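Students often ask why inverse folding is considered easier than folding. One informal answer: many sequences map to the same fold, so there is more than one right answer. In these notes we will look at a single instance of the problem. The structure comes first.
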């Protein structure tokens, strides 16, 4: 059915009111138009949990290699090598096997003391002020520094790395159709790739105990990663592991501010923190949706999708599907929220999930330990209006010391 005929109109922007109007709209879509093609973009969207699982569980039909269907084949481009998110099996399986050993809960657990030290340092730097911007002062720098640690980049380069990440990933980088802006972003990306390549070459001749050295040495079925793949994978970690973690920590602080009873409970019983993180990934996910492309005709619900169709998976909608989550609009840190779609599902399920959980838990504990009262002060919250991403651009809080 055509959206304009149905009277459903366009989805309200998340930035309008932090998703409140959007969630009302999504509920209607799940009920009346669960598989819908947007007339202008011709992109299909799947709104129901069950249909999203169908797509993520079937990468042979729902491919992540979108570049195959876009103008200008970028398959052999040095930039796509090593980019797991844009790769289908069998290559995906091979690369994922090579890198996944370094991302188990046990492997990332070794980073705990360093993450705790970085979080304490960042919080310590603002503790005397009585107020801070959660994003600028804590949740933005933390993941960049942690990934730098993981990759074994020199501590002295911390500022450099933060600066590149900011320049590349800030969604405010301007109009990408503008030639000057595009060139600036491309130049920054090239600088970062050159830096990562130099680091890789150093580790090739003199391996250390870090991820880059392990990736250079790792071998599965007699296959190794190429240098381009190692460099681009390191780059991917900086892209995929940064803003996601930044915005999720901000979303946690925001959600706890709206639910003071849950905040008090988690503060009193730190064992509730893991459940709180999972529930926030369900209730307020950062990655709103992700794309696939159909490789063959397929039926989803009552709709027939031909081959070559772009399909958006609405994780934010699936997370509120009343068929799968009881009372889905309620934030409940005691529910078992682990089947949420906040980290995706299937073969592309977030590789960094154990690291993200660890970082978020440590940061939250550090805030609870240091501050006795936390209150969001900067209303109304300024949200990113980037499609596909949900979270605040900055989040001012006031706090008291213990
Ligand atoms: C709260 C923080 C995070 C969120 C919400 C998040 C979310 C996601 C989601 C939704 C996907 C699936 C994309 C898809 O299905 O197409 C994904 C994939 C991925 N994430 Fe995360 N992520 C987070 C943190 C991290 C961190 C810390 C890292 C690494 C340092 C990381 C690395 C990756 C990688 C490499 C993939 C691609 C996996 C594949 O395609 O096999 N993420 N993430």
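Output (designed amino acids):
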């Amino acid at each position: 059915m055509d959206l304009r005929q149905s009277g459903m109109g366009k989805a309200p922007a998340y930035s309008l009111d932090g998703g409140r109007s959007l969630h009302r709209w999504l509920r209607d879509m799940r009920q009346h138009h669960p598989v819908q093609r947007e007339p202008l973009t011709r992109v299909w969207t799947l709104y129901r949990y069950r249909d999203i699982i169908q797509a993520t569980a079937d990468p042979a039909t729902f491919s992540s290699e979108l570049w195959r269907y876009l103008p200008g084949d970028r398959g052999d481009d040095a930039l796509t090598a090593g980019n797991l998110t844009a790769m289908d099996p069998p290559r995906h399986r091979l690369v994922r096997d090579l890198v996944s050993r370094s991302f188990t809960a046990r492997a990332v657990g070794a980073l705990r003391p360093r993450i705790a030290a970085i979080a304490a340092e960042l919080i310590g730097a603002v503790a005397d002020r009585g107020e801070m911007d959660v994003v600028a002062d804590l949740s933005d720098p933390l993941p960049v520094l942690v990934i730098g640690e993981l990759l074994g980049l020199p501590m002295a380069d911390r500022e450099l790395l933060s600066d590149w990440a900011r320049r590349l990933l800030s969604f405010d980088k301007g109009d990408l159709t503008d030639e000057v802006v595009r060139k600036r972003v491309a130049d920054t990306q090239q600088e970062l790739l050159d830096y990562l390549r130099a680091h890789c070459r150093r580790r090739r001749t003199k391996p250390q105990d870090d991820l880059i050295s392990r990736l250079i040495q790792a071998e599965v079925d007699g296959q190794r990663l190429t240098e381009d793949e190692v460099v681009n994978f390191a780059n991917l970690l900086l892209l995929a592991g940064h803003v996601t973690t930044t915005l999720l920590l901000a979303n946690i602080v925001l959600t706890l501010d709206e639910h003071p009873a849950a905040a008090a409970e988690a503060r009193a019983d730190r064992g509730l923190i893991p459940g709180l993180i999972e529930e926030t990934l369900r209730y307020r996910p950062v990655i709103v949706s992700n794309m696939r492309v159909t490789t063959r005709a397929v039926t989803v619900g009552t709709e027939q999708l031909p081959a070559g169709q772009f399909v958006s998976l609405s994780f934010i909608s699936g997370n509120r599907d009343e068929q799968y989550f009881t009372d889905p609009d309620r934030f409940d840190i005691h529910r078992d929220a682990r089947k949420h779609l906040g980290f995706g599902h299937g073969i592309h399920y977030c590789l960094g999930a154990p690291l993200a959980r660890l970082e978020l838990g440590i940061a939250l504990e550090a805030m609870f330990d240091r501050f006795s009262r936390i209150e969001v002060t900067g209303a109304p919250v300024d949200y990113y209006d980037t499609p596909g991403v949900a979270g605040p651009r900055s989040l001012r809080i006031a706090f008291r010391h213990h």
